[in-house]
Amino acid sequence: MPPATRTLHERMLKICHYRQRGASMGKKAKWAIYKKEHFQNLVGNVDMLVRGLVELFLATHPSQSVLCDDEAEEFRDVEPLDLLKDIAKAHHAPLADLLA
């Protein structure tokens, strides 16, 4: 991971840990189960923001393609490959293309 990206990652991780202080795994699971719509909104927002970051950093697409190819090779002999393909179609088009 490049130093600038690593610094950003470390800062985001620090923020996440700070915000989650005192929240046990049980408390997080309870929130996810009983506040399902909030959890789904959270996941949707994270997905949208990550897609925005991917589009923002278009220069990384060639190296991302190489990584996708390597990752796709790891899954070629996995039995539930159809499930992975379906998930990739919805959330990661480059990986979906390589798994097809």
Automatic annotation (TrEMBL):
The lineage of its organism: Eukaryota, Fungi, Dikarya, Ascomycota, Pezizomycotina. It comes from the Eukaryota. Pfam families: HeLo. This is Prion-inhibition and propagation HeLo domain-containing protein. InterPro entries: HeLo_dom (IPR029498), HeLo_sf (IPR038305). Residues 4-84 form the Prion-inhibition and propagation HeLo domain.
